[in-house]
Amino acid sequence: DTEVTQTPKHLVMGMTNKKSLKCEQHMGHRAMYWYKQKAKKPPELMFVYSYEKLSINESVPSRFSPECPNSSLLNLHLHALQPEDSALYLCASSRGGLILSGNTIYFGEGSWLTVV
Amino acid sequence: DAKTTQPNSMESNEEEPVHLPCNHSTISGTDYIHWYRQLPSQGPEYVIHGLTSNVNNRMASLAIAEDRKSSTLILHRATLRDAAVYYCINPPSGTYKYIFGTGTRLKVLA
């Protein structure tokens, strides 16, 4: 089972709302990623968790707050977002541990976020 | 971060081979070359990766230049389902930094 599940698939939120995106995998992976993708652009790395600890934060604004409550779950908490934050948010996972060849990353289908 | 350069778009006829190039002139000696593709309305999916030798799998082949400054993803017989954006990535060895470049949008003509 090579599946990363993201919920919700679509989310519309106001600029004062607080919402969360959720991601789940049951492949035993210990690294989990958040990417943001605007239309016709490549995915942009936001955060990486490794063994439930934040490993990479690509200078993402604090209105995006990641959380990794256990090895299977990854959340992205959203608060006071701007319309320009509207995008596809992709979750991914890979085996943990940093190996020279790099780990194959498995992506979910994404959550489409619209900020109004 | 290692930078990759790919053509913005390419076209191919169905059932013909496709060669997708990637330049990665700043690649370090131990950095692997990874290829992912993103079909419409889906998340990216792994295609293939390699270090120095050419690599084959059921999806594609990867040809790596001797100086490792460029590589080519080869789809042996393109199908309509191969229409996607193809990304070449060089994550720094031993990191989780999978940074996507602009990619190549492949159009397959029936």
Overview of the molecule:
The complex is a heterodimer of chains A (116) and B (110). Chain A is mostly beta strands and 116 residues long. Helix content of chain A is 0%, strand content 55%. Chain A is built from no helices and 11 strands. In chain A, strands 2, 4, 5, 6, 9, 10 and 11 form a 7-stranded mixed β-sheet that branches. The relative contact order of chain A is 0.33. Helices cover 0% and strands 43% of the residues of chain B. Chain B is mainly β and 110 residues long. Chain B has no helices and 9 strands. The model of chain B has no long low-confidence stretch (mean pLDDT 93). Classes of the chains: A mainly beta (116), B mainly beta (110). The interface between A and B is medium-sized, with 28 and 27 residues.
Give the helix proportion of chain A (percent range): under 10%
Q: Looking at the structure, what is the overall shape of chain B? A: globular
Order of helices and strands of chain A: EEEEEEEEEEE
Radius of gyration of chain B: 13 Å
Task: Using the CA coordinates, give the radius of gyration of chain A.
Answer: 14 Å
Amino-to-carboxy terminus distance of chain A: 36 Å
Report on the biggest sheet of chain B. Answer: 5 strands, mixed
Q: What is the end-to-end distance of chain B?
A: 38 Å
| Most extensive chain-chain interface | A-B, 28 and 27 residues
Mean pLDDT of chain A: 94
How many helices of chain B? The count is 0
* Class per helix and strand makeup of chain A: mainly beta
If helices are DSSP runs of H or I spanning 4 or more residues, what is the number of helices of chain A? Answer: 0
What percentage of the residues of chain A does DSSP assign to strands (E)? over 45%
Oligomer: heterodimer
| Largest sheet: spatial strand order of chain B | 1-9-8-3-4
